[in-house]
Amino acid sequence: MTIRVLGCSGSIAAGDRTTAFLLDEVALIDAGTGVGDLTIDELARIDDVLLTHSHLDHVLGVPLLADSVMRRRRGRPPIRVHGLPQTLQALRDHVFNNCIWPDFTTLPHARTPVLSLHPVAVGQVLDIGTRQVEVLPAAHTVPAVAYAVNGARGAWVFTGDTGPNAALWARLERLPLATLVIETAFRDDERAVARVSGHLHPQALAEELGHVPATTQVCITHVKPGEQDVVMREIQALGLPHPIRALRAGDRITLD
């Protein structure tokens, strides 16, 4: 299993791309600005998009992907966009409304669209390419999920945007865990804004990682542009036992 980090920043700046992971070259987990670094041929190979939630930095690649590949995918099944019912409804209401963007769930023809929307529920296991992906709980300001991609050496888990999340750890206690990709959007001196916006800061991260085996590789994502050095220094100062590193766009993770 190969996961390519297309974007892992909490917002945009030169060199910073928002959240998008490419799974085995055929599926996206979230579709932030990092999707734009794929070639048109790479974009045309994507068959599935798994969304954690409806916020712009995680979904804005979906409408642009549809526009870019519509002509190349004629005669092929639509790209399947998976998300909570509330996430998909937000796309219908606020993106594919023929005001912000054309409705690519009916283009180029209603019977042969380039996109189709597929609701998911926590606990569901999806067949994505040759992989099984489990939908996990997240705790954010809008309905949200996390995802676990099962691999031969354990699961690659992406928390999505989340604050403290007891339900996630309860499930992961029963799931072999190889790599945890977990957000830490803010510094400790911004803990108040982290709390109200449904994100983590280093001290909150430490509490969450108390539920995770010390052998688990922990990858930090969704840090705001220009803040990564500060956030990572604060994390390292906590003396956590886990191997911890910051993700960067362009990283490739191989799990089997």
Question: What layout of secondary structure does this protein have?
Answer:
Layout: E1 2-7, E2 20-23, E3 27-31, H1 40-44, E4 48-50, H2 56-59, H3 61-69, E5 79-83, H4 85-94, E6 108-109, E7 112-113, E8 115-119, E9 125-128, E10 131-137, E11 145-151, E12 154-158, H5 166-172, E13 177-183, H6 191-196, H7 202-209, E14 217-221, H8 228-237, E15 244-246, E16 252-254
Parallel strand pairs: 3-4, 4-5, 5-8, 12-13, 13-14, 14-15
Antiparallel strand pairs: 1-2, 1-16, 2-3, 6-7, 9-10, 10-11, 11-12
Helix pairs in contact: 7-8
CATH architecture: 4-Layer Sandwich
Question: What is the 3D form?
Answer: globular
Q: How much helix, percentage-wise, in residues?
A: 10-25%
Radius of gyration: 18 Å
Which percent range describes the beta-strand content?
25-35%
**First-last Cα distance:** 5 Å
**What average pLDDT do the residues reach?**
96
Number of strands: 16
At the fourth CATH level, what is the homologous superfamily?
Ribonuclease Z/Hydroxyacylglutathione hydrolase-like
List low-confidence stretches.
Answer: none
H/E series: EEEHEHHEHEEEEEEEHEHHEHEE
Count of domains: 1
Give the class from helix and strand content and strand pairing.
alpha/beta
Most strands sheet: 7 strands, mixed
What is the CATH C level class, in words? Answer: Alpha Beta
Helix segment count? 8
Report strand order across the widest sheet.
8-5-4-3-2-1-16
